[in-house]
Amino acid sequence: GLPSRGRRLAVADKTIRMVLVGEDKSASKALKGVGDQADKTGGKLKGMGTVVGGVLGADVIRAGADAVMDFGKASVESASRAEQAMGGVGAVFGDQAGQINKAAEAAAQSLGLSETAYSELATVLGAGLKNKGIEDFADQSQNLIGIGADLAAQYGGDTTTAVEALASAMRGESDPIEKYGVSLSESAVKAKLAEMGLDGLEGAALEQAKTQARLAIITEQ
Fold first, then answer.
1. Which of 138, 211, 121, 140 is nearest to 170 (CA)?
2. Are 12 and 72 contacting, i.e. CB atoms less than 8 angstroms apart?
3. Does residue 62 have a pLDDT over 90?
4. Contacts 24+ apart (CB under 8 A), 167-174
5. pLDDT > 90? residue 94
6. CA 116: distance to chain centroid?
């Protein structure tokens, strides 16, 4: 017979929990199972249209089938995104991944971000800072996400957009962050380098120094 709504919800919920808390190491296989279940359920619902179409109407049956299939696909996509975010944190932060994961778990309460969104933002920031040679890139990634939340609260918009502007600033793109009242012109960065005693450098050392200068300017402003 037709699986109950509670059973469908339980299947999706179990899959998501397996991915997020590691109940099953074969996450990919479990995710595929949910997708298959959604397709099967959708097929059964659509098939019933010819039997009870006179009572409920084929359009209603098809709408119900599409809703169930959409729910199953959304659950799979959400779980897959969470799995990828966790993998990204591990790849970028290594031994410090636990620090980021702990902050991500608290993000909904402290920053209004989902655990997955926090992990994704931290991964982008962390990778950029790490490539620039910033040693405390894990701490600075968390710091920048916090600043992004403050900027969003002060100037409007969402935290993700503000943090993305900060990530662009770390790459030397000053335009996105300017709408939040932060000036990161080349002259401002050079002045900060001189103030920090980091002018006169070249190559990778200069890029690292510029990133440190940008971090200092953002924190001050």
1. 211
2. yes
3. no
4. 167/121, 167/124, 167/125, 167/128, 169/214, 169/218, 170/125, 170/128, 170/129, 170/132, 170/144, 170/211, 170/214, 170/215, 171/128, 172/210, 172/214
5. yes
6. 5
**Count of CA atoms in the C-beta half-sphere (13 A) of 57:** 4
SS3 letters for 131-174?
HCCCCCHHHHHHHHHHHHHHHHHHHCCCHHHHHHHHHHHHCCCC
- Whether the CA torsion 196, 129, 161, 169 is positive or negative: it is positive
Residues 6+ apart with CB under 8 A from 30: 14, 15, 18, 19, 24
Q: What is the mean pLDDT of residues 56-65?
A: 58
Angle at 136 between CA 135 and CA 139, to 5 degrees: 160
Amino acid identity of residue 25, one-letter, is K
Which residues make Cβ contacts (< 8 Å) with residue 177, sequence separation at least 6? Answer: 165, 166, 168, 169, 184, 218
pLDDT at 204: 92
User: What pLDDT sits at residue 143?
Assistant: 96
**Torsion, Cα of 112, 117, 118, 124 (10° steps):** -140
